[in-house]
Amino acid sequence: PFSKRFEDAVGLACESAAARRVAKQFGLAESTVRGIDLRYLERWAATRRKPALRQMGVDEIHLGKKQKFLTVVSNLETGEPLWFGRERKKETLDEFFDQELSARQRRGVQAACVDMWKPFRLSIEQWAPNCRIVYDKFHVIQHANAAVDEVRRAEFFRKGGRTRGLVKGKRWLLLTRWVNLTGNKRQELNSLFAMNRRLLKAYLLKESLERLWFYRYEGAMLRYLQKWIDQLRWQRLRPFEKLARMLLDHLDGILNYCRTKVPLGVVEAVNGNIKTLLRRGRGYRNLRYLLLKAQRMAATRTQFVAFQKAA
Q: Per residue in 37-49, pLDDT tens?
């Protein structure tokens, strides 16, 4: 029993604030506000024109112990999510290609930015044979950070006395990029490197790996990667040797970045928006509602209003 103008006003208020605050503002129940907001978003989605899908991103979000994972398919050119699926299996992404895209749309997908999860790669190769798979830079750097942390733990247990105390509690300091550190943190890190050369080597290898995506030509990227792997020959860093083997196994997907340029940070930005919505709404049972909220947030570049308590 609400007019369209009233529902539009409630839906517009829900774009920048949580449903419980909007319910308090309009004197409604929180469930009523969510229902109005869903109808408002459905009307908006029915009138908008969906852009063509040429570059797609596939990633997952960890929800918790019960639902565990949520597969997110996004459009890299527009920066908005397209589809949500439960779990992160091959059958999950097969459902998107089979039900959401036609045969012509599947042939039009030129590139897909994914992590190194094998089920996603197998599904894309089956349904979109013309699509080039580009492995996400941030997931590769995440594996490099894990290698640095493994070296840190090994040095923590190997060293003793004062040196062991210096290594302890330096995890986040070692995982932070050098350009993002302040002067005091850099001095603290330099004192740690002076006491332990293996941590210095691991940190420099992690920092230099990011230069791999600065190259525009396939041959130059391949030569830089080969030089990076050659540095591991006498370092005796087993975690980085394992990382090098993983990079060689997925070499084609890394080199595809030179063949087809894709915006690498869009997938993480979409995931960040979805996590913000989950925190604001304290979880969503209706995935359709969550998808519409994320699409509206990406289309309008909405920012949540921050409410601070008065002192």
A: 999 999 999 998 8
CB 90 within 8 A of CB 117: no
In angstroms, rounded to a whole number, what is the distance separating the alpha carbons of residues 81 and 74?
4
d(CA 235, CA 77): 41
- Bridge partners of 58, per DSSP, are 73
d(CA 158, CA 144): 21
Count the neighbouring beta carbons within 10 Å of the beta carbon of residue 189: 19
Residue 272 has pLDDT above 70, yes or no: yes
Strand order in the sheet with 55-64: 80-86, 68-75, 55-64, 111-114, 132-135
- Crossing angle for the helix pair 4-14 and 30-47, nearest 10 degrees? 100
- Under a CB-based contact definition with an 8 Å cutoff, are residues 94 and 126 in contact? yes
Neighbouring-strand partners of residue 83: 73
Q: In terms of Cα–Cα distance, which of 14, 38, 281, 42 is closest to 23?
A: 14
- Three-class DSSP labels, the chain: CCCHHHHHHHHHHHCCCCHHHHHHHHCCCHHHHHHHHHHHHHHHHHHCCCCCCCEEEEEEEEEECCCEEEEEEEECCCCEEEEEEEECCHHHHHHHHHHCCCHHHHHHCCEEEECCCHHHHHHHHHHCCCCEEEECHHHHHHHHHHHHHHHHHHHHHHCCHHHHHHHCCCHHHHHCCHHHCCHHHHHHHHHHHHHCHHHHHHHHHHHHHHHHHHCCCHHHHHHHHHHHHHCCCCCCCHHHHHHHHHHHHCHHHHHHHHHCCCCCCHHHHHHHHHHHHHHHHCCCCCHHHHHHHHHHHHHHCCCCCCCCCCC
pLDDT in tens, 219-262: 999 999 999 999 998 888 999 999 999 999 999 999 999 988 88
d(CA 181, CA 190): 12
- Tokens 């950070």 found at: 145
